[in-house]
Design a protein that fits this description.
Layout (H helix, E strand, L loop, with lengths): L2 E7 L7 H11 L4 E7 L5 H10 L4 E4 L12 E2 L1 H6 L4 E3 L5 E3 L2 H10 L9 E5 L3 H12 L3 E5 L3 H11 L4 E5 L4 H6 L3 E4 L24 E4 L8 H8 L3 E3 L2 H16 L5 H13 L1
Parallel strand pairs: 1-2, 1-3, 4-6, 7-8, 7-10, 8-9, 10-11, 11-12
Antiparallel strand pairs: 3-5, 5-6
Helix pairs in contact: 1-10, 4-5, 4-9, 9-10
The protein binds 2'-monophosphoadenosine-5'-diphosphate (ATR).
2'-monophosphoadenosine-5'-diphosphate (ATR) binds next to α5.
Length: 273
């Protein structure tokens, strides 16, 4: 019998997860299908219980459901610390995971850059920043979280300090912070379409040993990444975070390593249309 997977969220029309997972299932010859459903937070519990009862293979969650899910599923320690669940597995009850940070980690490691022991500067203190900060701190990086609203950076850094090294600050001396960093990660919305000229930093702020990762993937090459290339730094595009977080969910559900290339192609085609 065909196994059903799904992503729940609201809005959900633009989700690229169905493209990505259906392409992987097809490539591997698996009798599985993946759909997107609009679900409001108040209905999440019912929808997850129904998915479980119907034998769904797994569910992804996106905005605005990731935090709500913590009240419903049995979340693993990382998802609990992050305060958000993006992957639900039904093999053993209703288990919750967060694969966003692992997605970012794989983007950087695939470029041959080591996370453990490196100085990582994360700009922004929203949901994406939380996921990446907890994951990278757990992996042994020294984290600095810099945010426009300094208080939010300080609060997040204090929480992250429970699992590793982290400090928080404002954006006043971003250039000085970048000079001391091995990896710079943009977790703000700066540079996102239509504000494609905005950027947290320019080439003058960077150095050639820096790796710059931008979670913004629309446009695929942001102004920040262009500036990184200008400075001779390594530029890592954010679209792969989407692919790798999906790949990690796929592994949790099926125990199989999905075809990354096929998933990436499906996402890029989805972004074009
Ligand atoms: P997400 O959950 O996707 O990470 P978010 O919670 O909306 O997104 O967080 C957006 C981040 O971008 C925040 O850290 C925000 O800074 P504030 O906490 O000060 O609001 C940051 N951000 C948005 N616009 C910005 C700007 N023009 N300059 C600097 N930071 C900005």
């Amino acid at each position: 019998m065909r196994t059903v997977f799904a992503v729940y969220g609201d809005p959900i029309e633009h989700s690229l997860s169905p493209n990505m997972h259906n392409a992987a299932f097809k490539e591997l010859g698996m009798d599985c299908t993946y759909h997107a459903y609009r679900v409001k937070p108040a209905r999440l519990r019912d929808k997850l219980l129904r998915a479980q009862a119907m034998g769904f293979g797994g569910v992804n969650l996106t905005v605005p459901l990731k935090q709500e899910a913590l009240k419903i599923v049995d979340a693993d320690p990382l998802a609990t610390a992050i305060g958000a669940v993006n992957t639900v597995d039904f093999k053993d009850g209703m288990r919750g995971y967060n694969t966003d940070g692992i997605g970012a980690k794989r983007c950087i490691e695939e470029e041959g850059v080591q996370i453990s022991g490196s100085n990582v500067l994360i700009v922004g203190a929203g949901g994406a920043s939380r996921a990446i900060a907890f994951q990278f701190a757990k992996d042994g990086a020294n984290i600095t979280i810099a945010n426009r609203t300094e208080e939010k950076a300080l609060e997040l850094a204090e929480e992250v300090s429970d699992v590793g090294n982290a400090k928080g600050c404002g954006l006043d001396d971003l250039r000085g912070l970048i000079a001391d960093s091995d990896i710079l990660i943009n977790c703000t919305t700066l540079g996102m379409h239509p504000n494609v000229e905005s950027t947290i930093a320019t080439a003058e702020d960077m150095h050639p040993k820096l790796t710059v990762f931008d979670i913004v993937y629309n446009p695929l090459e942001t102004r920040l990444l262009k500036e990184a290339k200008k400075a001779g730094a390594k530029a890592v595009p954010g679209v792969m975070m989407l692919v790798y977080q999906g790949a990690e969910a796929f592994k949790i559900w099926t125990g199989m390593e999905p075809p990354i290339y096929v998933m990436k192609k499906a996402v890029l085609e989805g972004l074009k249309s």
